[in-house]
Structures are given as C-alpha cells and as structure tokens.
Design goal:
single chain, about 425 residues, alpha+beta, Butyryl-CoA Dehydrogenase, subunit A, domain 3, Butyryl-CoA Dehydrogenase, subunit A, domain 2, 14 helices, about 45% helix
C-alpha cells in the first residue's frame, strides 16, 4: 500500500504553481486588483447600490484568469480529451483542489463563487450524458468558449432538500400549432441568473408529490417571456448572485426538454459525488491554511516576552485540528481513488456514504479552523485584514448547500444501518 503521490502529480502541482506566479499573481496585483482580496474585498466585489450583485470589474477579472488558465491548458483538466481536457481523475482533482485552497485567498482559486484556474464543468458532462444531439452541438462548445452560461433551478421557496415535493408544474400545451409546455412556479437560489443565457428548470410533469419519477428538466433561454427575477437574496458573504425566480405562463417547446422526460432528477443527482469530493478537498485545503497561518503567527507573536506558541491553550486546539486534517486527507484521497476504480453509477451504490462523510466533515472542520485562527490571532484575526472571517463566512454556506450536513449524515446512517448500500439486508442480529 503506497500513500505517496505519483511523481506526475507532484510535477503537475509544480507547473500550476509556476503558472500562478508568472500569470495569475501579476494579474491579481495589477490595477489595484488586490482590492478584491485584501480588507476591501467585500466592498470591492459588491455593487450594493444594484441589488448586491457582483461588480462587473470583479467578474471580468475572474473571466480573464480563466482565459489565461484555459490558454495554458489548466482550466479544462478534469474534462475528457474530446473537450480539450486531460481526463483528470477524482484523486488528482482532490489533491489539486486542496493544494490551491491551501495557498489562501487569491485569483487562482476563489471559493466564494466556485472560481478556479482548474475548473469544474458539471454542466458539460451533464449535457454529454443527457443532452439531445442539438443541445450538445450548441451548448457544450458555447459553455467551453464562455459564451453560454447555465443557471440551475431546483430549490424552491418552500422546498429545499425535499425536491420531490417541488410545486413548479409543467403541463402540455399547444401554441400556434406547436407542441410544448406551460411552466408555472418558482425557484430559490438560482445562482448566476444575472449573467446566465439559459436556466435549467425542474418541474413536475407527472406523478404525485413525493414521487422521484415525474419530474422533467427543461433547458430554457433566460429571456423567454414569463421568467421574472423577483429579488437577489443577500447572504452571509457578499456579493450575491442568488435570486428568487418566478415562472408565470412560461411556454417552451419540446426541444427544451433536457434529458429523459419524467426522470429529470437523474440530472440533478448525476454528478453530486464528483462535486462533493472536490468541494471537500477545497474545504480541507482552506482548513489547513488556517491552521498553518495560526502556527506561524503563534511562533512570531511574543506576549509577555515569550512566544504565544508556548502556551498549551494555543497548542492543543491546533493539535486537534491538525489531527483531524491528517485523518480527513487520507479519507478524501482514499474515497477519490475508490471512485476512480468503478463506473460512475456504482459510486452511489457502494461508497456514496464515504463521499458524504468527506464532504460534511470537511465543511465543518473548515469553519472550526477559521474560528480557531481568529482566536489565535486575536483582534487582528477578527478584522478583515486577515482572511479568516471571509473563509468562515463562505464555508459556513457549504454546511447547507451541496447537500446539508443533516441530509449527508442521513445518507451515512442509511448505509451504516443497512437500509441502503452494500450492508442492506446484511446486518446480523445482536450476539
């Protein structure tokens, strides 16, 4: 059993670091772009006068970083070769994402909006596996060329984790002699609607509330009459691009159906494991950054003439965090490696609980590490001149999104107690 990273991977990390230093860091420091990352970051990024949306200059900077990363061959790393990628494995992606997050805040990897120079493209893979021939021809190159942007409308004002109870409805309706669907309802947290060219709308087309079947996905242009952005919801970490959207007498033709009719939730579930394991790795990297910065500060700070690090009250909480980081890193990499050893559908059947363990624990650990870093740094740690408050506020989100802690713990419990997974029907009676 060999736990060392392959030479090819460590060399790739070195190439990424060299690219960051030569291309991304200079861009980050040019034209006062550092305002988006220093103590001014929330104000620099947010147009408070225009609904709290991201400022154009901020989003354009992110796009420029992506363009440079794409030109250098990093952005599409995880995609198949047919889309200009390198068929990056889950193991490699977890190591890379941890590595980038452990560098701290920067243009190379801003977790507040899923930005990274090594990108994640779930919508491209979703289109490859579920899209019609026409949808593939239009949307995959459009997304990769950064000309088309998809928003995702699943969560509703009254229904979050209970997606099968969604109230948005789509009913067949002919208009001008053409077959189509009228959609009525509403969605929450439809991230990216301010720039999206299209939105994936999930609506019940058959069955009863609570049925997994009977929900259909529609791929709809955002300028279609009947779509209204009601408000952008201000969040713990600003800016916001998370609106509440309503659909009223929205009509689309049959060509907008995305994936198999009545089985739209398969799209929503298809790549949750890849997203969760990679996001867990990012939270792990951010936690490691918080602990390392705390160690450095505690060695340098000398209250009462002695290093702060001499105090066990400083040492022990960081020791516990460092221990958890080491254990979690092994579980994340082992789980990612196992994911790479099986066809994607098998992940849900065999190790979905391990993915959930990695994700919910990493997000919680990151919040604890950021909080501890603030405490170790004292007053300056509580200020915006250090990144810990930003890290905490952002990663607190992930304990709710990407599957809440409670939902993921429920998944782990269902495997542990044999209601799902390999242990189903295998739990022996008490001895």
């Amino acid at each position: 059993m060999d736990f060392s990273l392959p030479d090819e991977l460590t060399q790739y990390l070195a190439k990424i670091d060299a690219f960051i230093e030569s291309e991304i860091k200079p861009l980050e420091e040019a034209d006062d772009n550092i305002r988006f990352f220093d103590h001014r970051r929330e104000w620099a990024r947010t147009n408070f006068e225009e609904g709290g949306l991201p400022r154009h200059e901020w989003e354009e900077l992110l796009e420029e970083a992506k363009r440079r990363a794409d030109k250098a061959g990093f952005l599409r790393f995880a995609l198949p070769g047919e889309y200009g990628g390198s068929n990056g494995s889950n193991l490699w992606m977890t190591v890379i994402r941890e590595h980038l997050a452990a560098r701290g805040l920067g243009l190379h990897n801003d977790l507040q909006n899923e930005h990274s120079i090594v990108g994640n493209f779930p919508s491209v893979i979703m289109l490859r596996d579920f899209g019609s021939a026409e949808q593939k021809d239009v949307f995959i190159p459009g997304i990769l060329d950064r000309k088309l942007f998809l928003a995702f409308g699943l969560t509703e004002p009254d229904h979050g984790s209970d997606a099968t109870h969604m109230e948005t409805r789509a009913v067949p309706e002919m208009r001008e002699g053409k077959a189509g669907w009228r959609i009525d309802g509403g969605k929450m947290w439809t991230t990216g609607m301010h720039t999206a060219t299209h939105v994936i709308i999930f609506a019940r087309t058959a069955g009863d509330d609570g049925d997994a079947k009977g929900i259909t996905a529609f791929l709809v242009p955002t300028d279609t009459p009947g779509i209204t952005v009601e408000e952008y919801l201000w969040t713990f970490n600003m800016p916001t691009d998370h609106p509440r959207v309503s659909f009223s007498n929205l009509w689309v033709d049959d060509s907008c159906i995305f994936g198999p009719p009545d089985r739209g939730l398969a799209l929503a579930q298809a790549f949750v494991h890849e997203n969760r394991i990679r996001q867990a790795a990012s939270s792990l990297g951010a936690a490691a950054y918080c602990v390392e910065e705390s160690v450095r500060y505690a060695r340098a700070r000398k209250p009462f003439g002695e290093e702060l690090a001499r105090n066990q009250a400083i040492q022990w909480p960081l020791v516990e965090l460092a221990t958890q980081i080491e254990m979690l890193r092994l579980l994340i990499r082992k789980t990612a490696w196992e994911m790479d050893q099986m066809p994607h559908p098998e992940v849900e059947k065999r190790i979905s609980d391990k993915v959930s363990m990695c994700n919910y624990w990493a997000n919680r650990l990151c919040c604890e590490a950021a909080d501890r870093a603030m405490q170790v740094h004292g007053g300056i740690g509580y200020s915006r001149h250090k990144p810990f408050e930003h890290i905490y506020r952002h990663h607190r989100r992930y304990r709710i999104t990407e599957g809440s802690e409670e939902i993921q713990m429920r998944k782990v419990a269902s495997y542990l107690f044999g209601y799902l997974g390999p242990r189903k029907g295998q739990i022996p009676p008490p001895r």
